[in-house]
Design a protein that fits this description.
heterotrimer, A alpha/beta, B alpha/beta, C alpha/beta, B: alpha/beta, Hypothetical Protein Ychn, Chain: A, C: alpha/beta, flat
Chain lengths: 99, 104, 57
């Protein structure tokens, strides 16, 4: 089982990030430890589908982080850039997604 | 034998890079697997996509392809077969079974 | 650990900081893909030689 961390930068189409969360979940259900982080984008409120994806990622021992405090409103876990950097040191794969 | 290489493609603007890396890696004897997902699946319509499928083991996310407006049952991209219309498990296979990894 | 950082575009301040943290105490090289004609042969040599490759945005 690999430990994988998806990263999402600012994008013009928010669906890029939401689909990245789906990819994160896809690896979780394939028995990998999958995490993700939003680096600089403020997300609109999640619909039920994306809320469920986030819950499922956590159920599978992963998590979704954000450097942007406003994304806590969607349930993402706030993290500092220093903490995120330390977590990235420990994973097998870093996956900058899209853009 | 050169190390194997897996490539995860999410960006629709990177066909030149995908082809360049795949050609260079196969020329060195590397086994190359490529998985296209989300907007990366738009590259299935790139004129060079069939040629890419001849030099690398190529899979795409069927669900993403459908979200891009294509029919994953009746419009399988040239170079692929039904079994290569795949899921995120193909990404998992790259992470597990390939020695080197890139995202493009 | 030999780590390769590949840049698909000019890195912003967040990416620069993350690269700095993950690179600490590691032997790192970098490759700029954001040029007119990248040397893919050289890039693949670097990827095959690295223990880990990160292709940043």
């Amino acid at each position: 089982m690999a430990k994988v961390f998806f990263l999402f930068d600012t994008c013009t189409d928010e669906k890029d990030i939401l689909d990245g969360m789906r990819s994160t979940l896809g690896l979780s259900v394939a028995n990998h430890y999958a995490f993700c982080a939003v680096l600089s984008h403020t997300l609109a409120p999640f619909d039920d589908y994306n809320k469920e994806n986030l819950e499922w990622i956590r159920d599978m021992e992963g998590d979704a982080f954000t450097l942007v405090p406003a994304n806590q409103d969607n349930g993402l876990t706030l993290i500092s850039i220093e903490e995120l950097g330390q977590k990235l040191r420990d994973v097998d794969f870093i996956v900058p997604y899209g853009n | 034998m050169a190390k194997s290489l897996g490539i995860f493609v999410t960006n629709p603007n990177n066909m030149k890079h995908v082809m360049g890396v795949a050609k260079a890696a196969t020329a060195k004897g590397s086994k190359v697997k490529i998985f296209f997902t989300w907007k990366g699946t738009l590259l299935c319509k790139d004129p060079s996509f069939p040629a890419l499928c001849k030099i690398a083991d190529v899979y795409i996310c069927a669900d993403s392809y459908k979200k891009m407006g294509y029919d994953p049952i009746n419009d399988i991209p040239e170079g692929l077969t039904e079994k290569k219309m795949s899921t995120q498990s193909s990404h998992g296979d790259i992470l597990t079974n390939y020695e080197c990894y890139m995202t493009l | 650990m030999k780590m390769l950082h590949v840049y698909r575009s000019e890195p912003n301040d967040i990416i620069k900081k993350l690269v700095e943290i993950v690179s600490e105490d590691r032997e790192c090289t970098s490759f700029n893909l954001n040029v007119e004609n990248p040397d893919y042969d050289k890039l693949v040599d670097m990827v095959l030689a690295a223990d880990k490759t990160v292709c940043w945005f």
